[in-house]
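Q: Here's a chain of 652 amino acids. Please give me its 3D structure as tokens.
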Amino acid sequence: MASDLVTLTFPDGAGRDYSKGITGSEVAKAISPSLAKRTVAMALDGALADLSDPIDRDAKIEFVSRDDPRALELIRHDAAHVMAEAVQSLWPGTQVTIGPVIENGFYYDFFRNQPFTPEDFPAIEKRMREIIGRDKPFTKEVWSREEAKRVFRDKGEQFKVELVDAIPEDQQIKIYKQGDWFDLCRGPHMTSTGKVGNAFKLMKVAGAYWRGDARNPMLTRIYGTAFAKPEQLDAYLKQLEEAEKRDHRRLGREMDLFHFQEEAPGSVFWHPKGWTLFQALERYIRRRQDTAGYVEVNSPQLMDAQLWVATGHMQAFRDMMFLTEKRPDDERVFAIKPMNCPGHVQIFKNGLKSYRDLPFKIAEFGKVHRFEPSGALHGLMRVRAFTQDDAHIFITAEQVEKEALKVNDMILSIYEDFGFSDVHIKFSDRPEKRIGDDAVWDKAEAALMAALKASGRPWTLNKGEGAFYGPKLEYVLRDAIGREWQCGTVQVDLNMPGRLGAFYIDEHSNKVTPVMLHRAMFGSLERFIGILIEHHAGHFPLWLAPTQAVVATIISDADSYASEVAALARRAGLRVELDLRNEKINYKVREHSLAKVPVLLVVGKKEAESRAVSIRRLGSQEQKVMGLDEALAELAAEAVPPDVRRGRMHIA
């Protein structure tokens, strides 16, 4: 006979029995009226749920207050519903479609003959505050499919009728009400509209096709954000303001680094200065790799699509791949590589390998192409063509922990060199869509976890976010204004080498499939450069700056001396430009400051006579006069890359 009781286990480990069907709200009230008052939702076995939901099974229960970080998603979700009610009350006849929570906020898509504009925001925000002030409870009802379609059809909400039809037959049709207003929604929500608070702001509008299809009606998407406290909203808005100043697209133009154009969407046109920066990163990684025992290779851009079928990429990654068409003289279909790993396996397979050859480390600055929707493209941060600082390490199963640790240490030291000291590691385990047996995944995850624990670094679990062929470590950088960027990865792959027939000969003359570690440190060079530009606000350390110094004249009489200074600076290894234009020095200073040149070497008649230079640093109003030889020696020493400087210190 089924029990009429459920056992609820609380965070302190204590368990209590309750009548089956008791709600979270009733449990909270039974414990303490003050607990019930400050609770806005509950978590059952870690999953957020409405406080009014009946509990019909044994579970671990947690009560979620409005200040709990987990409540932020609920605050934003509720704010989206409040915004939708405000819009429909102000402009009757407007249809609402979908309104999800997104990173840093929420949005709702509306259908109206006249699109909304930012000028509508004050009225919407005012009405939202009125709705929040009324503090109506959120209540959930389950309707039949036909009832939901009838009600929405009678209201003229044709998009909602389509959404009801799209809900799978085995799922309930949930309606959430806030007073008289209601919407179709999966939930959960907090207890009432008043819990949203006033720390919200509408941010921008954009056009969006219904269901992302250009053949469908155009909708207006209103974006907003919300936080638990006003000071959190203020901090976020200040961060956005600072991010706008640091926007790599604007700085890229001002510094003359790169541009994009419609003829090559998602592909970068690197200008000379931008390519100088790109090559500085390449040279840096190449030096680090050489020291660590990697050998550099280059694999084809275009390979038979059947190779990608064999690897599993075609099944898991097809929508992101660029494929050729069949030709009358060649029936094969080719793919532009979205990844470098299959090509590296082919290089490993070419020639017999022994266990004595392992670890076998091959690296490539591999150009790859992946299809990103045009609406998702964003400067250097989201492109279709990018270069990976990619490497693959072929090892024995026993070497996984040791080699993963080596890569881990190298990645962290690299980020330090580029000014990132706040780095967080995420362990990403098996995704739902994957290749390989569970036993193989168990082995791969255990090996990578052992390496992670041995590193002693703090980490978090990124559940279900591994690559389709293996688990991985992801390295997340925090930049100068607090934003997080996922860059490097270390991935254990026990699948692909075997699928492609790779093997080595062990000490007993047996053929053994190697383990393959995928490793990227910057990840995408293009994206990492975008992150660097914004992290440093374009003000690069001297060793990294595309143009390290400009020699600028005050008067034309100093032209000859300025040319000599520039030549000697180049001989000292500095990247230097010469500015002999017939312009005032203040104009030159402003122009080169806008271009973020770290050092100006200003010379006039006095400097020429004394063989000196007047040094102006970017961001400083001060000038420092130094003898030419001393100045160049100081700048040349400062311009030495940090890895080279460490090497010299080690030798010394």
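Q: Can you summarize the key feature?
A: Residues 136 and 192 are 5 Å apart (CA to CA).
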